[in-house]
Design goal:
The protein is of the alpha/beta class. Helices cover 51% and strands 16% of the residues. Keywords: ATP-binding, Coiled coil, DNA-binding, Hydrolase, Nucleotide-binding, RNA-binding, rRNA-binding.
């Protein structure tokens, strides 16, 4: 069996196909299978996303159209009713294309239906001569029907009330033996009555027959003409039917997704994350406890343990079926923040498929499946193994299972296995790249929730009691149980707790290191701005002097051209230069005096660094230097380079044109920019951050999704350049993980 068969993907497909309105749509759904390229999956999801947004999409239901076109291609003549069905099909296609042409929201669906050939001329030809009741009407037919009606009426008038039809001829009943001049067309069953066409009525009967045959021939001619015209357009008709099938499949998938609450997840990353996942088939039967899981970053191998009937196998099946659905471009019953890699291959070893006919044991079949995984699995594979140590004695099963888990982990394949083996739990706890998980319990009963980080207990005694095993037998089993087993479980739990504390400490250290790097980058940015400001002032002063000298030279040139004496020119030039120096020096002196005059700074005052146009808090004052604290950076500068802030306010490293207003409007708690391009997302993000800051909010939350990380990187680059941002980081897993960035505004 294939992995799709073992995971019952065909049943999910059948469930979706029931929503299709056309045979081609059902067939398109039945052909769905996992795709190997993220771009192809995203493209399929783009169509589904638009379909899910449409509240009342145009629908068409056909039963016989495929057969009709097949008959047309085989040379059969379509009946009037079949022609009307083709006309109805063409009419729907026209409405469908007009619907998407008038609405520019549906980019992908519009591109799909844009290839439809309307064939308006063929549709008009049909409806012009074939009426809704299937009757064919042309001018020639109307003319012949008028003649036919006139001839029939004259016959009725001549033959009287007893007139009847025999062999298409109008006749009268005559008693046998009575002589009448005419042609006998029939005799009654008893032989007492003859049905005679009077001789003088033969011409009129001929007129009736000729008119009737003329009408029939005209109808056949019209049908031949219409069929010939449609036959020439058969390729376009078949293409239209194919497009309608694709459209119908999209609408069917979108419809069931909307009704069942299925969502479009992120696709294409290396790790697997399922948030609120439910098995689509179990979802139909009862309330399902959602599955939360992440694997592929800190570890690639997950061993699930816990009680029998606790949901271990269902967890495996849920991971498998959701992965196949996502990779097939079908929305999944899970949060849209879930992430699914594009697997090269999915391996499934669930259940016992050993064969009595071949004499193959369960264990040998199981080993062959594990070997197949060993031979073919790679870094982009998903391996799902139920009871990995099953089929043989415990020690041997544990040893083989451990060896295979080592191999799978070394291949970086995402591996999820289940077991009851305590020794295997210990093995996983001590290995890099592996993690224990458990199906949680409450008061000894399963809750069907998966908890990652701790191994589960088998609860063999509770399970046996639950299914009705005799208490006496259970008591004896408890006496025979290995007393060291409970100690082992306790030690294993302590080991996992220690491992969890170490992981948390590592996370905090990494976060602290990241914050220090951000602070260093901020300091370097401010220092660069300081240097740029000083350099800018130097260039401005130099520019002033050069312009002044140029004005002097121009003035001297004017004097020379007026024939002044050389001594006068030199004297005037010298005087002008001296005056210019005095003016510049005086300007500097006034500027300096203005800066230091009446500025009795005190520690704690807010002051602005002129050259950088940033505001800081004074922390040290000496005779020649003032030290300001700006965010995480200190500046020691001369007093003349500092000016007081007119009105005390919170210190912010911002330019003077950034003014903070209270705005009377409602602010959303988060912004979602998933599925937007970078050039679309950043302007929206900038407005959102402005609103958060202007309204004096402290926290912000940005939903950008995971995907390939392009949008997240753009968001982080933007935040890192905004000096209003104090800090930002990825949200915890339960709040969105890699798909969400949270942070704080600097107050």
């Amino acid at each position: 069996m294939t992995c799709t068969e073992r995971l019952e993907f065909d049943k999910v497909i059948s469930l979706i196909a029931q929503r299709a309105g056309t045979k081609r749509g059902k067939h398109a759904i039945e052909k769905l299978s996992p795709l190997n390229e993220a771009e192809a999956i995203e493209r399929r999801y783009a169509f589904i996303r638009e379909g899910m947004e449409m509240e009342t999409p145009p629908l068409y239901s056909e039963e016989n159209l495929s057969a009709i076109l097949t008959n047309l291609g085989g040379g059969d003549t379509l009946s009037p009713q079949e022609l009307l069905e083709v006309a109805g099909f063409l009419d729907f296609l026209r409405e469908l294309r007009n619907y998407f042409t008038k609405n520019d929201r549906w980019q992908y669906l519009s591109s799909l239906v844009s290839s439809i050939s309307i064939l308006a001329e063929e549709k008009q030809k049909i409806t012009a001569v074939v009426k809704k009741d299937g009757e064919i009407i042309t001018g020639r037919i109307l003319e012949l029907e008028e003649k036919l009606g006139d001839s029939r009426q004259r016959l009725r008038d001549r033959l009287g009330k007893g007139v009847t039809l025999r062999g298409g001829r109008y006749v009268i009943p005559v008693k046998a033996g009575k002589k009448v001049d005419g042609i006998v067309h029939d005799i009654s069953r008893g032989g007492s009555t003859l049905f005679v066409e009077p001789t003088d009525c033969v011409p009129l009967n001929n007129e009736v027959e000729i008119a009737a045959k003329g009408i029939e021939q005209e109808k056949k001619r019209v049908l031949r003409q219409l069929n010939a015209s449609l036959s020439k357009k058969l390729p376009e008709l078949k293409h239209n039917l194919d497009v309608l099938g694709e459209y119908d499949a999209i609408v069917a998938i979108s419809d069931i997704s909307r009704r069942k609450g299925w969502q479009i997840p992120e696709v294409g990353d290396r790790f697997l994350r399922i948030i609120g996942g439910k098995h689509p088939l179990l979802q139909l039967k009862r309330d399902v406890v959602p599955l939360d899981m992440e694997i592929g970053r800190k570890f690639t191998t997950l061993l699930i343990t816990g009680p029998n009937m606790g949901g271990k196998t269902v967890a495996l099946q849920t991971v498998g079926i959701l992965s196949i659905m996502a990779q097939s471009g079908i929305p999944v019953p899970a949060s849209p923040d879930s992430v699914f890699p594009v697997f090269d291959e999915i391996f499934v070893d669930i259940g016992d498929e050993s064969s009595i006919e071949t004499g193959e044991s369960s264990f040998s079949f199981h080993l062959k499946e594990l070997k197949r995984m060993q031979d073919r699995a790679a870094g982009k594979s998903l391996l799902l193994v139920d009871e990995i140590d099953r089929g043989t004695e415990p020690d041997g099963g544990r040893a083989i299972a451990s060896a295979f888990l080592e191999v799978f982990t070394g291949k970086n394949a995402i591996t999820i296995a289940t077991s009851h083996s305590t020794a295997l739990k210990f093995f996983v706890a001590g290995e890099d790249g592996m993690q224990n998980a458990r199906m949680e319990t409450k008061n000894g009963a399963p809750t069907y929730r998966l908890g990652i980080g701790f191994p589960g207990e088998s609860l063999w005694l509770e399970t046996a009691r639950f299914v009705g095993i005799d208490d006496g037998l259970l008591k004896r089993a408890e006496e025979l149980a290995d007393k060291n087993m409970l100690k082992t479980e306790h030690l294993l739990r302590e080991l996992e707790e220690e491992k969890g504390r170490a992981s948390e400490l590592k996370r905090k250290l990494e976060e602290r290191e990241k914050n220090l790097e951000n602070q260093l980058e901020s300091a370097q940015l401010l220092r660069k701005k300081w240097g740029d400001g000083v350099e800018r002032l130097k260039k401005e002063r130099k520019k002033i002097l050069l312009e002044a000298r140029k004005r002097v030279e121009n003035l001297v040139r004017e004097i020379r051209e007026s024939n002044a004496k050389r001594e006068s020119i030199v004297r005037i030039k010298r005087e002008i230069e001296q005056e210019l120096k005095r003016e510049l020096g005086g300007m500097k002196k006034v500027e300096t005096e203005k800066r230091v005059k009446n500025h009795n700074f005190r520690v704690g005052d807010a002051a602005r660094i002129r050259s950088l146009d940033v505001v800081g808090r004074i922390i040290v004052i000496t005779e020649k230097r003032i030290t300001l604290q700006v965010d995480d950076v200190r500046f020691e500068i001369p007093p003349e380079s500092v000016e007081p802030v007119d009105k005390p306010r919170e210190v912010r490293a911002e330019s003077r044109h950034h003014v903070r207003f209270a705005r009377n409007r409602e602010l959303k708690g988060e912004i979602s920019i998933r599925n937007l391009r970078v050039d679309e997302a950043i302007p929206q993000l900038e407005r959102y951050i402005d609103d958060v800051w202007l309204l004096g909010e402290r926290n912000f939350r940005i939903v950008h999704g995971v995907g390939k990380g392009i949008l997240k990187n753009a968001v982080w680059e933007f935040l890192s350049k905004d000096d209003r941002i104090e800090s930002f980081e990825l949200a915890p897993l339960e709040e969105g993980g890699d798909g969400v960035t949270v942070g704080k505004i600097r107050l």
